[in-house]
Amino acid sequence: MKIYNTLTRTKEEFKELEKGKVSMYVCGPTVYNLIHIGNARPMIVFDTVRRYLEYKNYDVNYVTNFTDVDDKIIKKAIEEGTTAEEISKRYIEECKKDMKALNVKEASKHPLATEEIAGMIEMISKLIEKGYAYEANGTVYYRTRKFSEYGKLSKKNIDDLEAGHREIKVAGEDDKEDSLDFVLWKPKKEGEPYWESPWSQGRPGWHIECSVMSKKYLGDTIDIHAGGEDLIFPHHENEIAQSEAANGKEFAHYWMHNGFLNIDNKKMSKSLGNFFTVRDISEKYNLQVLRFFMLSAHYRSPLNFSSELMEASKNGLERIITAVDNLKNLSAKCGDKEVTDMEKENLASIRQLIKKYEDAMEDDFNTADAVSAIFEMVKLANQTADVESSKKYLTEIKDTIVRLSDVLGIIAEKEEEILDADIENLIEERQQARKDKNFARADEIRNELLSKGIILEDTREGVKWKRA
Ligand code: AMP
Ligand code: ZN
Fold it and tell me: Is the four-CA dihedral 309, 313, 314, 316 of positive or negative sign?
């Protein structure tokens, strides 16, 4: 399996640190608003990387954080007259809802920056001790020039950076020894959230958060560190400088970065008015369509979002779901027959297509080609499956399409629909359970119905229900 490593700018054969295990850290969003569709891209593509590694039987330890202390969160809290904590809690909950609807698997660990401050103070202290950081008036800076490999990820030359930086003076950062130095800890301003530290009451810089969370949950050296390409510089460059200086070891073996999502070929921005949250899209489409759309391109290419492309994705996804549904209906009808020679030949073609799918994924996760292998299976199924087919044939094709779609996080099999009569029966049983004061059973029935998309409403005229 080959992975394009931003660090070496080449596709490299993947070799895990510990046999059969993969440690993976993905930089998560800053939670001050509903996530936008650009933020959804790294979530979807790296969840797909994880799913494929799991398909290959790796045990994946997948860590992705929430940045829950930041200027933008504080600004939003002031605007709403509430606390930064209230804002971040609210948007973490909302983000988790979106991730679920995008069928992003729950991370092995989802740390919050505000719960890891002690580790950050420890790492900053270590950097000061080793001469990689210094304190000035309550602020701690990283001494960038001291880290001789600075620029190795972004391929930036430190002297060019210096020249560019000299012009930019950030207010409150006058005590820097060098304009390239960046903040590890900063003192609070009036009304801002803060933590006690040896240097000042204050809060950590953004970069140190990820260095610390990655170390705590995955160790000093990890297999894969990932995020959007805008994070290469300065965020990931600074993470490397911090972690490698503090730990004295290589930080991550493979650095993966997704390309940007644009809208109608323009950068997505609120001021241009071409900005969509995932929630906006969910009003028009099932979010499986958004996921399918994201996987229609290679994760490193720029991706253009437009309503035409979303419609094409919707149709493509429906084609897969309909084929699976059809195979399922046929296999319920067909009798037990022997697999014919023709079917055997077709199943051999299916196996070749599995190989095509795997080859695409092994080549730096080429999901676009993997999806086209699934489409070829769908085409073969549509051309060959009918009431005369054998059950084994129909089931094997169906299971293959469902399994390979699932590795992409695409649910190809429709949930069994619950019939009206079954709903009525369950409601009656619930009423009886309530009469018998068996509230546990009554709740269980409500939840069971809810999981099937049936919402109950207790009204004065009795129980009403609707499909979500
Ligand atoms: P942020 O909350 O801005 O730190 O972003 C969270 C993640 O979303 C990071 O990995 C970013 O690189 C990624 N991201 C932000 N905007 C886009 C975009 N338009 N396209 C793709 N990825 C993005
Ligand atoms: Zn990060």
Answer: positive
